[in-house]
Amino acid sequence: MTLRALRANPAHMLDLRPVGYVIGLLVSVLGIAMILPMIIDIAEGRDHWPVFLQSALFTVLVGGLMAVSCANGVKEGLTIQQTFILTTGVWVALPLFGAIPFVLGETESRFVDAFFEAMSGLTTTGSTVFSGLEALPKGLLLWRGILQWLGGIGIIVVAMVFLPELRVGGMQIFKSEAFDTMGKILPRATQIASQISSIYLALTIACALCYLALGMDAFDATVHALTTVSTGGFANYDASFGAFSGTFEYVAVLFMVLAALPFVRYVQMLNGSVEPLWRDSQVRVFVITLLSIAVLVAFAHNQLLQGGAEQSFRQALFNVTSIMTGTGYSSADYMGWGPFLISVFFFIGLIGGCAGSTTCSIKIFRYQLLFASIKMQLGKIRSPNGVFVVRYERRPVDEEVLSSVMSFFMFFVLTLGLLAVALSLTGLDFVTSLSGAATVLSNVGPGLGDEIGPAGNFGGLNDTAKWLLIVGMLLGRLELLAVYAMLTVSFWRD
Asked: 277 near 283, Cβ under 8 Å?
């Protein structure tokens, strides 16, 4: 299935068979992935493995039947309608099946909690409703890591192939056919996806080996590598990454940063062109912004807490990187770092990494275009007769791209406000409501406050708030507009 033949909507009833076929295949793959935690549970000897066997059989059976029943509708390409529905449908269907082991397993979760955990995993949000993680079967802990790892590679492919075609949030500037490759033509989208998968796997293995070399046991190294490279943030301990310290934090920072860079640049490196990575302006802006904020936080941390220069820098660098990239690990409870630094952590969660990475939130390139547009408008005010052009990577930016970016900012702020108000109506306090809305829309993980902050979790929230947060995770992961477009009457009109 490719986007090679995206066509205008047909004048007849919408055919959902191609969508069902792809979703069915992906559900089957998810079911097959359940075999891995089953093997771990067998090795652990806790008699928890039948949960994953039952879940895998059911998931593969349902996914396979869906794919077979829809196979006769498979065509060479998807219509725009079908592509929107597929993009959203995948991120709804997979968490439904991914939640099954949590319902049947030792957690015996209610459906809302299981669905929350699975959605948080596959969207790489990293918010959790579970406590006492150390006591859970290793199979469930591995399953949480697998969900995030699959979600991380999935969103890269969506950001590289689907969202540019759907002209969502300015992502069309990264269409593979027209992307600035610094003199080299990129392979076709399918080849890009294949090479990205190889790079993603290689980074994960490298991260696991580094953790292992520093003293993590094999299980912890594997799970934390899965959730580091996916910038997901699920950990095996209630203390998150606070269970480790020192060199572990520096290694985690390295791989969080690598996962936050555009994977298309790694593809170019794989094809023999190294220079484009640093010549990419969003890479430079991301790295400079990250280091500048980390130094600021380290200085303030050292002045306020007197913890020593190296400790202050290490904790600041780790936690700033984790929140800015949307990973959501915490190595310390920064709620005790004072109001100024708490405010910093709130706002850096709204930044994100580079386009075409595993990261989330608004992303660096949109801020670049926003500031370039503001600069242009200020220039027009000073010189009404002047000619000003917004440029990105030394190329003029189409008005359509600017309009899409501005629409994204508008919808992000509007959604943030409405979601925060809705959460407050469920009885949550202001800090929990606002930070909860921000963390799920940005797919960061921890919020602020005693309940959902870095030292807490989302398990104590009421069911209505959890459902609202689930919707927020979906909206944030799919860049808002991909979901909102489906809510318009014109989208469904023949």
From this structure: yes
